Amino acid sequence: MTIDNIMLDRANRCIAQGYLTNSKNPQTDIFGVFPTHFKKGKGCWIYDTENERYMDLVCALGCNLFGYGNLLIENSITSDYGLCLGGSTVHEVYAAEAVKGLFPWIDKIKFVNSGTEACLAAVRIARSYTNRPYVLSQGYHGWSDEFVSLTPPASGINKFSTVFDLPADFDDIPDEILANTAAIIIEPVILDDSRARIEWLKKLRSLCTEKGIVLIFDEIVTGIRYPDHSVAKHWNITPDLFLLGKALGNGHKIALIGGPSALMDGNYFVSGSYFSHIPSMQAVRSVIDLITRKAVQYNVNVLNDKTKYFRDSFNALGPDIVRLEGWGNRCNFVGSDYNLALFRQEMIKARFFTKNTFLSNFDIAEHFSDILYTVKMILSRIALGEVKIEGKMPVKPFSQTVREKANG
User: Fold this and answer.
1) Is 402 inside a domain boundary?
2) Is pTM beyond 0.85 here?
3) What SS3 string covers 285-305?
4) Distance between the two ends of the chain, CA-based, in angstroms?
5) Mean pLDDT of all residues in the chain?
6) Three-state secondary structure call for residue 250
7) Does residue 405 belong to any structural domain of this protein?
8) Residue pair 291/300 in contact by the 8 Å Cβ criterion
9) Which of 37, 223, 264, 293 could anchor a disulfide with 219, C-beta 3.0 to 4.6 Å?
10) Residues 87, 11 share a domain
């Protein structure tokens, strides 16, 4: 029994369902081939229980933009102040001011610990402000009851939710629904940021303004990572509420809701003991400091251009077994379920940790040529029929299922 299998057995004995994060469930990888647990990370590398090193092409589900253990971030964090204090801290003020400097349309900010909490809080703020019950949703917004209720089997969820899927054609929304809709919450860009998608977002902004609906951009994934640090800022489409997380803390637990004072200072209740977690606040300031410097080293726009070139180079390798589709710093490997499993299996053997989502970061970009060389060899072997599945086929994470539904 390997160390990895021993750790999996230990996890199944003490952790509910055997995992804490659905997308890290061992069943979402090729069971029996992929490592089930990792010990540490450094730069773009993660290390399994037997100290084997893998390049993390998932980037901690999008959290890792600057590399694991980036000293420019970690050295700015100190426990000398404590972790949480008995009253409000100066650190939350400093962090909020830094965010406002990056996104000047934001008046006020509420920090929380996770993307799910940010989505929950945003919906509560919108309902409090509009005094309306309904919410329309597109994309993945975490594990709360209302959003999980939209995707079968929704076990343990109240099926009489007042959250509904947002149709692509606004004319399909009944007037009585629009009149009672508090908010429309969407991931503005998942993979598609075509001109058609951007025009659709602009029409959605106009619809929400006309109908008095709070427009919520869930940029938990795209925030900081997208060109100009957000879809909203890059395309000059201002939502009413704006959500950030993941890359904003580079691995530290943080998310936020930002918006105008009229919404953010409303009569609602959102509160948490760890919302002012001092290391997280320090990480936010450090991340924003890095990306606002003029140096190319941490220029997100430059990284996105490099990754789009990598995407196009990947797709030019041939044969057409697996493709990369997306806007740059976030793409998906696309192909048949079987070919994707073959591809991921061979990538893990070559010490590249992959899921169906590919997320770039500044450290990974330094290895694009090595990745392409490996990919070319793997695709050739798959085309020649030299590869077969050596374990159980992976299952799709819940978030992927939701996003595929959003993409039609």
Assistant:
1) no
2) yes
3) HHHHHHHHCCCHHHCHHHHHH
4) 43
5) 93
6) coil
7) no
8) yes
9) 223
10) no
